[in-house]
Automatic annotation (TrEMBL):
Signal peptide: none annotated. This is Type I-MYXAN CRISPR-associated protein Cas5/Cmx5/DevS. The keyword Repeat does not apply. The keyword Amino-acid biosynthesis does not apply. One of its GO terms (biological process) is defense response to virus. Keywords: Antiviral defense.
């Protein structure tokens, strides 16, 4: 198991059912963080590290700002609409000052990388952070959209200070996607979470705070 600290000045995580007003999830969805980690290590296959489990803690709850920016509405399947009406200015919610910890547990990975017997996500993240010159990727590492660049990703041995653990709970107030179907909604999966009050962190989060990233289209391992 490893932990990384992620910092980004701003990012927008458009809610799955947002329409004319692009509301954002209140924190970074696990599915988005998983995609960022794949980008960090230069992995193109989304299911490469399926089965990895992630847990999170936030330094603070990000502030929400509303900005006017270009918004894409018809990305898939309607090229004519996209070219004429798809990219237009509209109001978009943006989170400001993201700073969080992400723990990565790879023991139960069963994705294509595990099947090939190649290094798992934990090992690849350590390699990417210590030797970034060995990673080949397209563009910079982003948290969400391509213009939401990450300021810093660093390995953390022992968290310092007080943090707000993100706790998976059936009665949680946040419904966050852990796997996104980018074409439709059939294979999108959500999990409810609760952002706990600030408290000093000692060691790693409890095992029940870790949520596996699973491809719903793949057969059960």
């Amino acid at each position: 198991m490893i932990a990384v600290r992620v910092e980004a000045p701003y990012a927008s995580f458009r809610k799955s059912y947002a329409r004319s007003f692009a509301e954002t999830y209140p924190i970074a969805p696990p599915a988005t963080v998983y995609g960022m980690l794949l980008s960090l290590v230069g992995e193109w296959r989304r299911a490469a590290h399926a089965g990895v489990a992630l847990a999170f803690a936030y330094e603070r709850e990000p502030k929400v700002a509303t900005v006017l920016r270009k918004l894409s509405r018809y990305k898939y399947g309607v090229a004519a609409k996209q070219s004429k009406m798809g990219n237009a200015p509209d109001y978009v919610e943006v989170l400001c000052g993201l700073s969080f910890l992400c723990w990565i547990e790879s023991r139960r990975e069963h994705g294509t990388r595990a099947q090939e017997g190649t290094p798992r996500l934990e090992e690849r993240i350590v390699e990417a952070i210590r030797h970034p010159e060995r990673v080949t990727r397209s563009g910079v590492v982003c948290l969400g959209m391509s213009d939401d660049a990450v300021d810093d990703i660093a390995l953390v041995e022992e968290p310092i200070g007080e943090w707000r653990l993100l706790v998976p709970r059936d009665d949680g107030t946040m419904d966050l996607p852990v796997w996104v179907d980018h074409v439709g909604a059939l294979d999108t999966r959500w999990r409810r979470y609760h952002l706990a009050p600030k408290a000093p962190l000692t060691g790693t989060p409890p095992l029940d705070h870790f949520v596996p990233i699973l491809d719903p289209r793949a057969p059960a391992p």
